[in-house]
């Protein structure tokens, strides 16, 4: 036994060295070691930002990470955060390669609005890697007097404190029906997930929710819930009014989620900003190969949640809306036959808009310094000047 111990220890050490892979680097121009099992070529290590532990976004990205680690041997590290700004910061500081599934903070950061309208942020040169379709709508009790969005005049509509992603969608849906926030009674609430229960308690009349939210299913089982009629989004004029406020929005059907019946899909606000995203300087080959890996391992993670089907490539919607598609994503969708000249033109327009935003930010920053503006004054001044200095994308 004593004679065998050094040999055994040597074999264990050698095995550890074989399994330990060198740390990968996805910075542009880097020469990374990669491992592969199929067509994808991935670095040995990847770090991604993600939604907080316990969220749907975290659950989905965890399942994807497990499948890719198992297939390719790549070590994937996740940085979970519960706010949009905190999810973007690791990308900005180069401590994460990309966001595994970010939300509307991608759009706010691209434009330099909401929490990104302050001197330490401003417009960010960010790109969506693969637009994933998500469904959002307005929910009421079964016995509610409200049937469609157009009926909501004077209704008690929530404003979720600290959640601009929800609030902007509610404002956009009202706009599609020719209403504004001034036409409803705005009720400030502190929790997105508590909205269905607040309806049941008579505190609000309607809730803006993801169809996949667990609290919708729970409230439906307890109280009986239904979704308002969103078919108005099929009207071109209504959709244009919505897109003036929220450019990602498109009408899209689903039958998966709370207060829905399988086989009887309903129309919702579909949007594609709840998706993986990266800064433009992340190497195109990395983005391309990540998407290849997503595609190749889909069968390994597709049952992790009920709506995991949105990650199937055929379900993705690569039309550039609000934020450009990353160069690596364009290459991937071109190979899949899902890219066209219209998308290319829209993508180039959005890239040009980012350049204008950066130029406008420099102008405003210089003007603000000359005027001695505070951070809060700067934010308001920037948003005013932005409208004057930056052309709208047609």
Automatic annotation (TrEMBL):
The signal peptide stretch is 1-20
Q: Which domain of life is it from?
A: Bacteria
Q: Name one Pfam family in it.
A: NMT1_3
Keyword terms of this UniProt record: Signal
Q: Which SUPFAM superfamilies does the annotation name? A: Periplasmic binding protein-like II
Gene3D superfamilies linked: Periplasmic binding protein-like II (3.40.190.10)
Q: What NCBIfam families does the record point to? A: TRAP_TAXI
Q: What is this protein called?
A: TAXI family TRAP transporter solute-binding subunit
